[in-house]
Amino acid sequence: MSLLPTVVAALLPAVASAPSAASYDTADQASSSERPQVSLSGQAFFDAAWLDGLVAKNTDAQESDVRLAELVLKAEFGPFTAAAGYDFSGDGEWRDFGLVWAGNKRWVSVGQFKEPASLDKLTVQGQGLFNEAASLTSAFGLTRRLGVQAGSYGYRWSLTGAAFTGSMDGTDTQGRGPGQSGIGARLTANWETEAGRVHVGAYGRTIDYDGSGVFAASSPNTKLGGKTLYLDLTGANAADSSVLSGLEAAWSRPGFYVSGEVARMSFDLPTGDESATGAYIQASWAITGESRDYSAKKGRFSGLMPTRPVSEGGIGALEINARVDRLDFENFNRGRATAYSIGVSWTPVEDVRVSANFTAERGSGYADGKDSDVLMVRLQAGF
C-alpha cells in the first residue's frame, strides 16, 4: 500500500498530458474513438461530529477527520472502461477497481464493485439524502466485493447478477473476509407518471462464511463514532451462511423525493435458522425546486444539481431531509434500535455540498438504554 502514492504520482503526468476529445483537430477526429480516453476524478469529505451515548464509546465527545479522500483513474477504449479508485483517508482502502465491458443495453464487470443490493447503498456516496446510508446497509454487510457482475437494462427496467468473494482490503468477519463467497441479484422497474417517477426493486443475496461466521454492527449516521455491535455470530455460535432479501421503492418529482426499504437476513446457525430485519423510510424537500435524475441502467437516483448555482448568481440547491431507520434483532433477544434523523444540505455549485444531520437512536428490549445522539456536519468537494 505504501507504493500507491508513487504509482499515482507516476500516472498523473500521463493524465495531465492526455488530449481530451475537444483538443483534437479535424484530422484527428476520425481516429479519436480508437484512442484510450484517460480521466482523473476525485472527491473529499471533511466530517465533524458531536457524539453522545453509546456511539461515543471509546471516542471523544467531538471528532473530526477527513472521511474520504478518493482519486479515481479511468481509461475508456471502445466498449471497455478500466477504473481504479483508492481512498487515501484513514488507513487507506481500495474502492471500485476493475474492468467493465458495455454493449447494447448489456454490461459485464470484473473486479471490485458494489454488490447489487439496496437503493440507498447503491446511491453514489455524497449524493444521498444523508451523510451515511441507512443502518441496515452496514448491519447486513452491504459493501464492495471482488467478483463478476453482469447486467441488462431497458428504458423501464434493469437486472443485475453477481458472484463474489470478499473485498480487496476486507479481513473482518462482517461478510467481507477472505474465503467467503456468495451470489446476489437485483431487479428494478420504473415508471414516469403525471405525479412523478416511481421506482420499485427487489434484491437477494446468499453468502457462505467459510467457517469464520459474521457479526452485525452499525453506527447512527456517522463513521466517526463507535459502532453498536448487535450480533456476534462467530466462534462456537458461528453462522455457516446467510440469506438476505429486500424490497425497495421510491417516488420523485421536482422538489420532492421519498424512498424506503425493508430487508430480512436469515442465518444458518448450529442451533437452527434465525433472522433479523431492517427498514427505513426517508423523504426530502428541495426548497429550490430541483429534482433527482434517474438512471434506468443502474436503477438509482442521482444527487441534486442546482438549477441556479451560486456561480451564475443563484443560491444553489437547498434541501431538507428526514428519515426513520430501524433494526430488529428480537429473534436473537438483542432488542430493537430505531434512529430518527433530520438534516439539511446546500449545494452551491456542482460537486460542492455542505450538509448537517442530527440523529437520535433509541433502543428497546436488550438495546434499552443503549442510546446515541449524533450531530454531524460535512463539507464535500469533488472534481
Number of domains: 1
What separation lies between the terminal Cα atoms?
Answer: 24 Å
Nearest-angstrom radius of gyration? Answer: 21 Å
CATH superfamily label? Porin
Please outline the major beta sheet.
Answer: 16 strands, antiparallel, barrel
- According to CATH, the fold-level topology is Porin
The fraction of residues assigned to DSSP E strands is over 45%
Major sheet strand order: 1-2-3-4-5-6-7-8-9-12-13-14-17-18-19-20
Mean pLDDT, rounded to whole units? 87
CATH class: Mainly Beta
The CATH architecture can be named as Beta Barrel
Which key phrases capture this entry?
383 residues; mainly beta; Porin; 16-stranded antiparallel beta barrel; two-stranded antiparallel sheet; 20 strands; 56% strand; globular; disordered N terminus
